[in-house]
Design goal:
The protein is mostly helical. 81% of the residues lie in helices and 3% in strands. The chain has a domain of 45 residues. The chain has a two-stranded antiparallel sheet with strand order 1-2.
Amino acid sequence: MTVEDLLEQVDDMLDKAWSFPLSGGKCVVDAEQLRNIIDDIRGNMPSEVRQAKAIVADRSDIVETAKKEAEGIIRKAEERARRMVSQEEVVKQAQQKANEILTQTQMKSREMRKGASEFSEDLLRRTEEAIAQRLAEVRQARQVLRNPPKQDASED
């Protein structure tokens, strides 16, 4: 069950709670049931934190893969350049091509790292916002439980 579902249960519990007349909105709720729901909310929060850690790990994997790919391309370019040593012009062309490949690879590697960082940053930002929103909802629910809204005596 998600944190939102659990908060919805707390809200439903408050809606269905028996209220004392002329008590300023105070009501009776099943404390054990409410504690169980709060425990479930606490239990669900770490899963969102684990998701954030997985996103960071994925970012590292993407960057590492990009580095390895770039190193492999560089090695291949260097090997190809060494094999083309037969004539001076061929060597010059090979060196030029190797430099072009190296430059392109470095650019691609930077772009991949930048893209991975931006992607990870966006995912972490959204996860952080979701966690902050859930935490605010939990705090608000706890505040309502501690200080329920006062009702006018004329409404009872």
